[in-house]
Design goal:
The protein is about 35% helix and about 30% strand. By secondary structure, it is α+β, with helices and mostly antiparallel strands. The chain has a single domain, classed as Aminopeptidase (3-Layer(aba) Sandwich), CATH 3.40.630.30. A five-stranded mixed sheet has the order 1-2-3-4-5. β3 and β4 form a beta hairpin. The model has no long low-confidence stretch (mean pLDDT about 85).
């Protein structure tokens, strides 16, 4: 897998992968926006230099098959001077899952964060029913920190 930073030429494939995430999440949260519309709106707001965020794209034969979207931020409540890496979205196309690509992308995000300095740690969220992703994160050293419960009315 070759890793590149997001460029507009990957927009169509990235939107398709973001749609995959949203379709999965809408099984739990039916009120979520339709995937393509939400993904398109997110990409319009993507400003790596302004928002301390970046998207890495995994390519096989020059075709996008995975991505990770992450950003750096401070925890104003608990540690306003320390920055944290937040891995917002990680997606691997189904036919490439179980091959270690998720771990590679996680490690690259962490490496990039450490190069910035003053990064205290990393956070990642996962839906409770996404057991495969949860196991990948655990395998990469992530532990439960906070549990959010949800009740739909």
């Amino acid at each position: 897998m070759k890793i590149v930073e997001y460029e507009q030429k990957y927009e169509k494939e990235l939107i398709e992968m973001l749609e995959g995430i949203q379709d999965f999440e809408r099984k739990i949260f039916s009120e979520r926006e339709e995937g393509k519309k939400l993904a398109t709106n997110w990409l319009k707001k993507y400003e790596p230099k302004k928002n301390n965020e970046y998207i890495l794209i995994g390519l096989i034969d020059e075709k996008p098959m995975a991505f990770v979207w992450s950003y750096y931020s401070t925890d104003e409540l608990n540690s306003p001077t320390s920055k944290y890496l937040y891995i917002s979205d990680l997606f691997i196309k189904e036919e490439f899952r179980g091959m270690g690509y998720g771990s590679i992308l996680i490690h690259l995000c962490e490496k990039k964060a450490k190069e910035l300095g003053n990064i205290k740690g990393s956070f990642i969220s996962v839906l409770a029913n996404n057991i495969d992703a949860f196991n990948v994160y655990k395998k990469n050293g992530y532990n439960e920190n906070e549990i959010t419960l949800y009740k739909e009315f």
